[in-house]
Sequence to fold (403 residues):
Amino acid sequence: MASFAEIRLEPGVARGLKRGDRSAQGIAYRVLAPTVMGLACRILQDEGSAQEVVQDTFVDLIEHARTLKDAQAVVGWVRQVAVNHCLMRLRSPWNKRRDELDADPAGDVYVDMAEGAARTEGMQDIEKALSELEPETRLVIWLHDVEGYTHQEIAGLVGRTASYSKSQMARGYQKLAKRFRGTEDGIENTASRSARVP
Amino acid sequence: MESKTPLADLLAYRDGEELPADVARAIEGDPAAQGELEKLRGIRQQLNALPAVLPDPAVWEEISRRAQPPRSWTLRYPLATAATVFLAAALTIVAWNPLGNGGAGAGPEPVVVADGALVDLMSRSQALESHLPVQGTPAGQLAWGSAEEALRYRIADIDAQLMRIYETEPVDVERREALWRQRVDLLESLTQVQRGQAVVRPAIY
Fold:
């Protein structure tokens, strides 16, 4: 999956967005929405909430595009807004309640949100491993390892210290690493095959 | 064999963060730590390789329905531009006044020299506008796709064309009159829609 840092928007698209041009909005959506959706799915682990994040992010983009400076500013802005919408949902009481209900010790609440996409068994396993982490731990790992946020930046987002971000990361990796062992060819998944995978 | 190096240090090393020299040396000289590092790099690699997820096609439709795209100021506040158009019209008419004596020190007399039909249209346009109940409402606040919104945007478009006409010389008199006529027709339709009659005249230009 392309991270936001790898996405390039044509300057013409950004200019079109500023003008409220419908086709530019469509292009920006096609280019950016899968990454926004991927980010939201992995952080929130709920497809419905992820779709809402995509919706809210692009409504914000269309309504505020005229304030953006250039094409690359659009991509960074979309990433920031999408992360903020994810954070808002993670902090909502409703979401917390849902997480409590989903805290199944058998670990069989994993939902395949990338259904239909070409996926390997290893991908399904890392996806499942990620889904089993605490929401904030997952957020820290995704923002750091995929989106390239620094611990300082993550700390600013979640209102904690960089040390907190680092400890969340270590805690998450401890769980992730238990599911994998290194081989000469790289990483091989050793997660329990009995876990329910859709 | 498991490394004795704390996971936080291994992650910091993997990510190129600053570590005390002795910690870094210990990691480099420890085969178990190197094995763990490989594992950590592999996990990061797998996270980055996860596929993008396509949103449901209905999401874009919902965005289109909800979003109020930015518009030029003439489109955001269509009827507010009317005053500017009138001002431009009046100034131009005054500036072109062929009846003015044009002598040194003599300013142009504020005489409107438009022909009777145009003056009637302008007066009618002004009267209709003054009776609109939600005069000056930003179009962005209207229901997306409503008849009222469509009419306001068309009026805004006419205003923009009128502004351009008054900015260029020579003024295309016929075009100017046609635009004023369209403006009056659209305002009449808007008045009807706002009165709840919802009868939009087929004023498609």
Summary: The radius of gyration of chain B is 34 Å. The longest helix of chain B spans residues 173-194. Residues 72-77, 93-113, 134-145, 198-205 of chain B have pLDDT under 50 and may be disordered. DSSP finds nine helices and no strands in chain B.
